[in-house]
Amino acid sequence: MKLKNIATLALLALFAVSGLNAQSLSPSTKTHWDKGTLVVETPARPDGQQHVVGLKAPKMKTVRVAFVGLGMRGPGAVTRFTHIPGVEVVALCDYVKERAEKCQKALRKAGMAPASIYWGEKGYEELCKRPDIDLVYVATDWDHHFPVAKCALENGKHTAIEVPSAMNLDQCWELIDLSEKTRKHCMILENCCYDWFELDALNMAQKGIFGEVLYAKGAYIHNLDPFWGDYWVNPANDPDKLGWRMKYNKENRGDVYATHGLGPVAQVMNIHRGDRFRTLVAMDTKSVHGREYVEKKTGKPCPEFRNGDHTTTLMRTENGKVVEIQHNVMNPQPYNRLFQLTGTRGFANKYPIEGFVLESGHMQETAGAPDLEDLDSHSFMSEENMKKLRETYRHPIIKKYGEMAEKVGGHGGMDFFMDVRMVYCLQNGLPLDMDVYDMAEWCCLAELGSLSMDNNNCAVTFPDFTRGHWNDVKGYNHAWATAEEEAATDAAAAAFSEAHKAATAKLNLWALYDAAQSGDAAAVKAYEEAAAKLDEETVIAEKAAAAAKAAADKAYTETYSAVEKAEAK
Question: Taking every pair of C-alpha atoms in the chain, what is the biggest distance, in angstroms?
């Protein structure tokens, strides 16, 4: 047997004996040892494919979206999208039909047209075949993130996937290949990149306020005891009724939920935009809490619980920087995402204390800095000066959408930031904030960490998901349209939404939809005929609104001109 595959094959043999479904391990992952380091090999890019670093898609006046998975995260996403101009919710899908139907309430409240309903284990497959869908938004349980996303990309849809978006390296590579082949976006829905503090800190880091950031920490520490019973039980593969999330932790090792902590610091570190992760070392504690839960839930012994209560992963980058990521959903602790940046000239920290430490001399040299007191590099700056600092370096996303985000909400508004930015980029034909390589880099910690842990906590290398293009772009940035382009796009989006709602009301779609729920053939036919006219009526309403605006503008101009002439006399 070749030495290069011994580690992986040994692991697969272990799982075959134990009977566990170790989804975090990929059968096709190829490895070899190099001086005590387990090297994970990067497969060659298939012929005819090109990388998607900086991928742009044609502009969309209207983003037609379908939602798959409407249990915990999905309903909130549907509601948030009703607040974004230039969006049409085309379809809703869930394993349970009633959950999909329930989300119609958000569309009704917003005055938007009813969406088509899909349900069952394979309902998403029919949904993805529709030609009138641009974006598939995946918010299912973890087991279904990949198959739904794969199906969407195979059918030529842009795809946005809740975290973790891929559960192992095989899934990462397949989504990368599909994105490269189809030239469609595959975005990880990592909302913590849009937290207010993280956004402001990112802007400061990009402006050099912290000097060179050398070390960063992130985490997901959140005791889930109150929530274990709320996770969906898949009747197909969960006979003990543990719920999908506890079941996954029982069967898999490594940081299975790394992206909340990793995403924001990876952006600060410019990962695959001038730097890349090279190696990691991972450790975990023994399992106590998870094992106890399973035994209490099932009333029988739990001989093997793969994931430890607490996982720690250390990563080193190509440029000699270090990132530490932690995961603990078992033990009683305060909620902690541990966002922390250590730079050569400053420091940022969000949990458990929110604050900044900066060198006063450095701040005096920095253009646009607030008038700060003599700072002590051993302690956090005052609340007053922190407020001044954040106001000075307020992130443009917050400036543009902050007021709306506060109203719409979603984890304090960061969910809305995430969604509205994705739509903004699609409408303006710009690269998305997170691409398919971000998805792979942030999601691969489960498999790479398990390889490290199961091999005496050895060093494990990261594959190069960009396949040689990690240094093409110098520095992470959010893409923006010009002021003129943005104004035109925003106006077109607002006009569509207004016309769409007017057409929905004119066609009396909700009354017809309600009548059709009886199953009466005539009622169903009446609704379908009216719904088929929606696009046509929307266009008519847009043209009417445009004509009315043009007439008003003309009247105003003529009146203003007459006043000017009269005043001139």
Answer: 99
